[in-house]
Amino acid sequence: MKQSNYFNPTLRDNPADAEIKSHQLLVRAGFIRQNAAGIYSYLPLGKKVLMKIESVVREELNDAGAQELLMPAIQPAELWQETGRWDVYGPELMRLKDRHDRPFALGATHEELITSLVRDELSSYKQMPVILYQVQTKYRDERRPRFGLLRGREFIMKDAYSFHSSEEQLDDAYDLMHETYSKIFTKLGLNFRPVVADSGAMGGKDTEEFMALSSVGEDTIAYSDESDYAANTEMAEVTVEYSKPDESEEALAKGEAETSPDREIHTSLLKVNDELVLVLVRGDHELNEIKVKNLYGTDLVENVKQEIDVKEFDGTIIADNAIKSIVNGSIKGATAYHNVNPERDLSIERFEDLRFIQEGDPSPDGKGKIVFAEGIEIGQVFKLGTKYSEAMGATYLNEGGKAEPIIMGCYGIGISRTLAAIAEQNADENGLNWPMSVTPFHVHLIAINVKNEDQKTLSDRLYDTIRKERYDVLYDDRKERAGVKFKDADLIGVPIRVVVGKKAAEGIVEVKRRDTGESFEVSVDELNSKLQKLFEQLG
To answer: Hey, CA dihedral for 233, 237, 239, 242, is it positive or negative?
Structure first.
């Protein structure tokens, strides 16, 4: 492609609203343009990278036996009402009505729609297992779109769904998709980790997120410094063994008293399934509401702003395991107490793991200590079980002719988020630096001075010969200064640059790697063999 005719508007300065590297550089280098908050157009360069990512995803999924289909983005409300998610999904679900006043939603996810499809088509255990997937635009009305493609209101996603007649089949598919995702993200050149996660509004049981490690990630990963253990901090189990200090218990008294954070008892009043639950955690710990939700098996948990007297509270009291080890602790607030000994003085119904894990805590697998890192979620795998099939009447006949609900799995990859994650991990102060697997072009051919006949003639010839070797070439034939061309080349981030300059008459060009900055002169006769070796090194 000749750059003089290519739609690639570059910018000198960062956009005012771009907070992170990938957002800044994707806009400046002419890959994307914002149309509204959280809504972007992909310009030709951005579209090429998206297609490369999708190609890797499709190749690995097809190799795993998955089959591609395409479902509508507009979904009837009655499907979501069948599962109850129309009311509980929240304001992120974009809702609309047609001219007949029928309610619809723009697809944020497709569990309901795919279940409605298979319930009419999969009727026997002999037809399973089946894995179906699509690559499609999704919509979520984010309260605060930010970070460019990382948190948008319209985004591109690969979502896959598996259907089974046994838990063993589901386990096999889950493991297969886990392995497939690892292959995909490795091919895409990402530094990533799979981590134990929470299923949230999706439902189901086992789930893992695939996280691209990045300092701008919106999720915190807790991982072991001595093993492969990794989990989202919301799901990381705390296995600290607490011991009580060796001192006598004092008499309970009203009023505040100075004490250390590890002897303070912090209270949180929650409404859980329409019942009030008082939750206690130690002062140096933070309550993890996801663990409360999982303890009660519900998503209906909300904070209640109400001062209470813990001694007079007429409801359920639960406490984090660390509370049990407190001796002569204190409770602050409108009704304060000191010399609190929880098992003696408080009506605690049960002790559970209810806090966030902290750096330095023992790893739940018993190997090493916990360390934190930031990450960008790029994919997730779920075991949905029968949540959707039971709600929507999707059944099959087993070997005995008895109807049973279809067992399901769900597997998502954020295609546009993955593009941003790759950009975030592969950039420097000068611009982008694409891995060979997704680069929009393989070679950036630059003619320093197109008015020079030797340079123009050689550049035109190389443009033809390099393309004949099946390399995708961006040919900068613009009548611009050399400095402008080099700055744009750094911004765009093509892996290999071939520069035709003052030695064109001698048949010598400069070859430069974008990742290392290494450059060297090569005769035109040796160029193709040198490019082949470089591409082998770059993968």
So the answer is: positive
CA-based nearest residue to 287, from 323, 314, 256, 244: 323
Place of tokens 């010969």: 465
- From residue 233, give the alpha-carbon distance in Å to each of 73, 142, 356, 400: 33, 22, 6, 44
d(CA 308, CA 335): 7
Give exposure, 48-79, as e/b (b: 16+ Cβ within 10 Å). bbbebbbebbbebbeebebeeeebebebbbeb
Give this prediction's pTM.
0.87
Rounded Cα distance between 430 and 205, Å, is: 44
Residue 294, phi-psi category: left (phi > 0), alpha (psi -120 to 50), beta (remainder): alpha
Average pLDDT of the chain is: 95
> Would you say residue 284 has pLDDT above 80?
yes
Residues β-bridged to residue 374 = 220
Strand boundaries in 201-346, DSSP class E: 207-213, 219-224, 230-232, 253-254, 265-272, 275-282, 301-303, 316-320, 329-331, 337-340
pLDDT beyond 70 at 382:
yes
Instruction: Spell out the domains of the chain, with CATH numbers in brackets.
Output: 18-191+198-206+388-424 (3.30.930.10), 253-352 (3.90.960.10), 441-538 (3.40.50.800)
Contacts for 241 with CB less than 8 Å, ≥ 6 apart: none
Residue 205 has pLDDT above 70, yes or no: no
Whole-angstrom Cα distance, residue 53 to residue 452? 39
- Owner of token pair 């290392």: 516
**DSSP secondary-structure letter at 205?**
S
Block residue for tokens 């497939």: 180
Tokens 């975030």 sit at which residue? Answer: 424
Alpha helices for 146-198 (secondary structure H): 167-187
Cβ proximity of 369 and 362 under 8 Å? yes
Predicted pLDDT of residue 189: 96
Residue whose tokens read 């589901």: 170
Q: Which of the four pLDDT bands, split at 50, 70 and 90, describes residue 333?
A: confident
Spatial contact of 232 and 222, defined as CB atoms under 8 Å apart: yes
Q: Assign 196 a pLDDT band (cuts: 50, 70, 90).
A: confident
The pLDDT of residue 199 is 59
Please tell me whether residue 68 adopts helix, strand or coil conformation.
strand
Residue-wise pLDDT for 387-432, tens only, equals: 999 999 999 999 999 999 999 999 999 999 999 999 999 999 999 9
pLDDT band at 110 (very low <50, low <70, confident <90, very high): very high
**Token pair in block for residue 419:** 């593009």
In the chain, pLDDT over 90 holds for what percent of residues?
Answer: 92
Q: 403 Cβ partners below 8 Å, 6+ apart?
A: 395, 396, 397
* Type of residue at 363: S
